[in-house]
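Table S2 (continued). Query chain:
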Amino acid sequence: MKPISIALMVYQGSNPSRNALTEENYKPLADALLEAGFYVESMLYHDSKVRELEADLMRFSAVLVWVNPIMEPGLDRRSLDRLLVDISRKGVYVSTHPEVIYKLGTKEVLYSTRQMDWGGDTKIYTTYEDFVKHFLPSMDELSIRILKQYRGDGGKGVYKVSAGDSCKNTLNVVPADAPQERTTLPKDDFNREFKKYFESGGMIVNQKWAHGITNGMVRCYLTGTKVSGFGYQETVALCPQASSPDSESRPISRRYYFSEDCGLFQDLRQIMNEKWIPQLQEIHSIADEAMPLLWDIDLFINDVNTKQTEEKYTLCEMNVSCVSPFPPSSVRHVVATLKERMQVQK
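Corresponding output:
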């Protein structure tokens, strides 16, 4: 019997010799898929080769995709998304369908889930005019807000904003991807600086500063609708000294990985599996079989000592289109879930 064929697709960039079967981040999964009886091949994505890729990808039963939301300056995922939609319509299983990415994998999910336990004071601006009219009134003299562009990765387009004076004539702005470049801008310059994020249908989410950032961040890895592992990072982008939320940001620390059985996070695992994921699916009308094959949810810890899990975490973001690296525990869950979904595809 011919084995089910799987493509592991990564971004080519400036390296045409990339191979997902041998790279550290993907090799354990590639080996596990091969051991499970799949045929596995590495594929490289680039906007310039979309037409050839579509024909080539039709050889596979499934395509597992690791391509960042913003790959290089001037590029976005539009060509990739069209490619994935086209092959999906023709019967190829895609690890995360672009329709689901648009529901869960953009910063808009912070607004759509603001009524959930992990939500809070979150606003969204869908036009530049809306932003200019309503953002500054959302702040008081002492408040700190986080502005996030619609799609991005690695802290790009994420800013910590506070009033520079009591009349809000100036704003202090700290970019998450370069906190050393903190600036103070007159309000008109500030508004113009953010105009670019509304081009091509973009939007901006305005989120209240999460004081729990000083407790670190838990990354909850999921396969389909179930938790498959965890990551913990003590210091993330924009994290200040614990004693002063407006102090200089601390250096980002490494992330440590744990299995889904780790005792430190069993309260989170339970509420995620039993309550939060079903709520998320209901809000966005996503069936179990359409949930991403591998994705994650980043959460700030509001209070490390509380026993009230509903109050313990604040949502930072979700990643559904390019989750890498991931805990070793997620590998067997991905393989098992892929097997189940391939049976349904037949």
